[in-house]
Amino acid sequence: MSEMTESEARPEPRHAKVLIIGSGPAGYTAAVYAARAALAPVLIQGLQPGGQLTITTEVENWPGDTVVQGPDLMVRMAEQAVHVGTEIVSDIVTQVSLDRRPFAIETDSGTHWTADTLVIATGAQARWLGLDSETRFSGFGVSACATCDGFFFRGRSVAVVGGGNTAVEEALFLTKFAREVHLIHRRDELRADKTNQARLLAHPKIVTHWHSEVAEVEGTSAPLGVTGVQLRDVRSGALTPLAIDGLFVAIGHVPATSLFVGQLNMDEEGYILTAPDSTATSVPGVFAAGDVKDKLYRQAVTAAGMGCMAALEAERFLAHGEAAAEVQAEVLVGA
Length: 335
Ligand SMILES: Cc1cc2nc3c(=O)[nH]c(=O)nc-3n(C[C@H](O)[C@H](O)[C@H](O)COP(=O)(O)OP(=O)(O)OC[C@H]3O[C@@H](n4cnc5c(N)ncnc54)[C@H](O)[C@@H]3O)c2cc1C
Hints:
Elements: H1 6-9, E1 14-21, H2 25-36, E2 42-44, E3 58-59, E4 68-69, H3 70-83, E5 87-89, E6 93-97, E7 103-107, E8 112-120, E9 124-126, H4 132-136, E10 142-143, H5 146-149, E11 157-161, H6 165-174, E12 180-184, H7 194-202, E13 206-209, E14 212-221, E15 224-233, E16 239-243, E17 246-249, E18 253-255, E19 286-288, H8 300-320, H9 322-329
């Protein structure tokens, strides 16, 4: 048996006019638009094909579907992207060089890509508590998104973990549906802004649990669902049961932007900055769409909308080159 030489083992270098990183709603929508513009896009899926919606169950706010399972929706998006001419690649981007065009992209499989334009749709991940019981009930009573799942808890009792603006806003939002909302926080004061704090502390449906953390999520197996949590007093270690039907973890999100540090302008939390009303980043020809640049809405439909914008802007960039890039030169925020 002859040994393979290094050049034989290495995958062929590839080129794409539009290379999309990420397979959530932003990436797939960018792919559909770029493919329908005859740009033969290539989409690299990453570690989580389908993105965040693959770890949830019912989605009730995707337009056109009364209710759809998150994983099913993402399979349909992938099929649509392929149907119109996208090449979907099962791989992970490990390195990018944005200092000259075409951009250079390396992947886990060792493929070297070059791309005339790049759409970054790598999303974000919610921060979780890190408990096995939290993972077990994820999508079955444990959530990281009140806007997405609050509606399922009409007349029920829920808890929110966290002390920042997101946690407080989620708790206030949940009062529209829930019978009572418990706010669980490790400290005895909130990091949220004063207005939000005042609204929360005055709200008759909200009960605050200071110096507390969730030690365990408890529930039933059939059907899988949450029935309560064990609260641990962080000072004494004492455990107290709290009966709830849903747990919302609101301790922050982490955008998947480590590949682009030092190459693209980002805010202090690592979200990619884009020009106003645009997905154009600080590097001409590079566009960012979805949760990777959006810490405000974090919805499938807004991510998809930005994916559409990114593809249209990439198309314009390819047609008009540097002239289209002028708008990007204005993305100097944080520079
Ligand atoms: C549990 C849960 C329930 C939710 N429910 C709803 C809901 O009901 N309705 C709603 O509108 N929204 C919901 N959301 C929010 C919604 O899922 C996100 O807003 C949306 O998925 C963001 O889409 P995105 O395309 O920006 O990124 P994501 O969905 O985060 O996808 C990111 C993609 O990038 C890929 N990627 C990352 N790094 C790399 C890399 N190095 N190389 C290649 N690929 C990479 C990943 O594999 C993934 O495919 C929910 C979120 C969660 C966590």
